TrEMBL record:
One of its GO terms (biological process) is L-arginine catabolic process. It comes from Glacieibacterium arshaanense. Keywords: Arginine metabolism, NAD, Oxidoreductase. Residues 4-446 form the Aldehyde dehydrogenase domain. PANTHER family: ALDEHYDE DEHYDROGENASE-RELATED. This is Succinylglutamate-semialdehyde dehydrogenase. The active site is at 229.
Length: 471
């Protein structure tokens, strides 16, 4: 395979899923630019009809779509079916959000007609992640198309087949040529797209490291839109849980930490518990960990979680886990790998209370770090002891304690007695700090795919100067 060729691998079998050449960024941007005038002028009703046609195509091909996502990412089929369902649901949600947040308004101010309308930015780049290779880029693409933008979409180099399939669904739905352009490639292709003079904005989902590079790059072009949706070092506090609720609390902890093999940006990374009162909870958590089925996406019975995306990611996670253990971490459940040729990891749990200078980084996989604290003030301090600010959760306590937690939390998603990775698509989604740049996605994506134009308008010419003129 030449340097210009790409290949995606089934993480469970090692077999090739997709192979192809890296795309031409210049050609993709030129195609999007050429299609922009007609698409922007088509009108909102026509663009809504096109989105609904895409929705029906995806619905018709849902089983094939889910199977492809499962094959290329290794996620269980039950989970990839929910991802395809989210792609379908995004259309209706985006239509509602567009009307509410970016629709036209009119009124009157001092006898003058006032109007508010929105215009598309133009050609928008979309950089997609591998963990939700359909749902997350789709969360940018649908609102951007409704607003009248055209798209250059670079899927993750680890999931090119899913990106290509989703774009083909738009083509099957009758989207005009050039409105969506897929450009496959690795990091160099992403950098070329982000820095292209013909781009009017970039919508990114991925790591904080890449997002920080993009923020520096776009500092030179403040007139271009940049929406960054990044990860988190997310805290989950468990506090004052009755014995009768410990099993349910443990289930929420396991869901928060290990859903999608820990490859959700909202997964809990740090479990904060009360020193001296944590053992009953952890007994139940480890009981669930020991029962978790880790396997391939089409296995029966269905696994709770599949592999991480590839062996490189698995190697990095194991090295990070070993590093915590070597610096004083107490391993409760080892991050184990039964076959070193495959990235299938069992859930890891480690007490890092006595680890000095714990790294404030996102371990993007099935690793949960437990931290014991003496009181709730210390729990709040530990929860906020991060440069990230995506998701935070509290399990237990009463409404007053939750209100205290909510007020103190520095996160864009704050949940009570629910998993940290529970988020509604009809609400804004995003974080602060290293988790984002105040451009929340999901329902608020309508805000960053169009720009508002405020107008004062009159049908007749009326003007006079009453003050400051010589007779």
């Amino acid at each position: 395979m030449s340097a210009s060729e790409l290949e995606s691998i089934d993480p469970c079998t090692g077999e090739t899923v997709w192979r192809g050449a890296a795309g031409n960024v210049d050609a993709a941007v030129a195609s999007a630019r050429a299609a922009l005038p007609d698409w922007a002028a088509a009108g909102l009703d026509a663009r809504i009809a096109q989105a609904r046609s895409f929705q029906e195509v995806v619905r018709d091909q849902a089983d094939q779509f889910a199977a492809l996502i499962a094959t290329e990412t290794g996620k269980p089929l039950w989970e990839t079916k929910t991802e395809v369902a989210s792609v379908i649901a995004k259309v209706d949600i985006s239509i509602t959000a567009q009307a509410e947040r970016a629709g036209s308004r009119s009124g009157e101010v001092a006898g003058v007609r006032q109007a508010l309308r929105h215009k598309p930015h133009g050609v928008m780049g979309v950089l997609g992640p591998y963990n939700f290779p359909a749902h997350l880029p789709n969360g940018h693409i649908v609102p951007a198309l409704l607003a009248g933008n055209t798209i250059v979409f670079k899927p993750s180099e680890l999931t090119p087949a899913v990106g290509e399939f989703m774009a083909q669904c738009w083509t099957t739905a009758g989207l005009p040529d050039g409105v969506i352009n897929v450009v496959q490639g690795a990091g160099d292709t992403g950098r070329a797209l982000a820095g292209h003079d013909g781009l009017d904005g970039l919508l990114f989902t991925g790591s904080a490291t890449t997002g920080a590079h993009l923020a520096r790059q776009f500092a030179e072009t403040p007139w271009k839109m940049l929406a960054l949706e990044m990860g988190g070092n997310n805290p989950l506090i468990v506090w004052d849980v009755d014995d009768a609720a410990l099993d349910a609390a443990a289930a929420l902890v396991v869901q928060s930490a290990y859903l999608s093999a820990g490859q959700r940006c909202t997964c809990a990374r740090r479990l904060v518990v009360k020193d001296g009162a944590w053992e009953p909870l952890i007994d139940r958590v480890t009981g669930l960990i020991d029962r978790i089925i880790v396997g391939a996406p089409f296995d029966q019975p269905q696994p709770f979680m599949g592999p991480v995306i590839d062996n490189r990611a698995a190697d990095a996670l194991q090295a990070g886990f070993a590093g915590l253990a070597s610096r004083g971490g107490d391993v409760i459940r080892m991050l184990a790998r039964r076959d070193m040729t495959k990235p299938l990891l069992s859930p890891g749990l480690i007490d890092v209370t006595d680890v000095a200078d714990r790294p404030d980084s996102e371990m993007f996989g099935p690793v949960l770090q437990m931290i014991r604290v003496p009181d709730f003030d210390a729990a709040l301090a530990e929860a906020n002891n991060t440069r990230f600010g995506l998701s935070a959760g509290l399990i237990g306590g009463d409404a007053a304690l939750y209100d205290r937690f909510w007020q103190a939390s520095r996160a864009g998603v704050v949940n009570w007695n629910r998993p940290t990775n529970g988020a509604a698509s009809n609400a804004p989604f995003g974080g602060i700090g290293l988790s984002g740049n105040h451009r929340p996605s999901a329902y608020y994506a309508a805000d960053y795919v169009a720009w508002p134009v405020a107008s004062l308008e009159a049908d007749a010419i009326e003007g006079s100067i009453a003050t400051g003129l010589r007779a």
